[in-house]
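Because discrete structure vocabularies remain unfamiliar, it helps to consider an illustrative case, giving the amino acid sequence and backbone structure tokens:
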Amino acid sequence: MDKMNETYQKEGRYINPLTDYGFKKVFGEKDIMIAFLTDLLAPKSPIEDIIFIDKDLAADSEETRGVIYDLRCRTANGSEFIVEMQNKGQLKFSDRILFYLSRSFSSQERKGNSTWDYELNPVYGVFFMNFHMKGLKPQAIRTIQLRVDETGEVFSEKLKAFTLELPDYKDKPTEYPKTQVEYWLYNLVNMETMTTTLPFQAQQPIFGKMGGISELVRMSEEERVKYNVSLDTYRTNLSVMKNERAEGIEEGIGIGIRQGKIATAKTMKADGMSVEVIQKYTGLTTVEIAEL
């Protein structure tokens, strides 16, 4: 084995499928995508085939925005799947999901066809997230669709989003996942550090193929270069998020300390203590105390 292969093997046996390169290599394989969508949707009839379609959805006009998806595929019945990997949290990520689904829906418009009756093909969004979505309770697998508030009835089956939150599956024992989809999430999160064959192949045989195409030693020189660039971007994003969280915690502590000083000063002022005494024990300025 050459020195480059030895370097890669020290990091593990497989590529990291959470990187842009790794994700597209794994789920860009038709058999793997079909197996995953089948486990996620549990359809009444099996998904026999898919075709990968253009990931670049151009803007309708100069005033609108185009979209470039990670992966986009279509089944024989016309159902469309947008499959995305997102490593960095976004404040407006829920809006982004709606935007992606809406753009795919609107692209079905039959312009110039006066007989078109607005019939639409289903559009499903699958969003792998290496973070917990802000504003919602942590939920490993979340299904989102349109429902009637008053009755709980499903308004339409043709628009649905799945969010798959990955953090809870890191470094867990193999006894942790219990469902078909959880087996996928576990393997995706931990694959980079695995040194043996992927687990849960009895539950999902396609994991054997997924491991085979993901082995570092099988990569060509060109593939290794592309993967290294993608891996560097992935690690940089994680580092940035870690720093942002640390800065946020530090800022929160500072705000808490100041709020505590203000509360103490208010109590002391209400008890008739002098400005000098309040200033001595809280560190607030005379102007700040006067404004309380």
The longest helix spans residues 221-270. The first strand starts at residue 50 and ends at 52. Residues 1-9, 59-65 have pLDDT under 50 and may be disordered. The two ends are 72 Å apart (CA to CA).
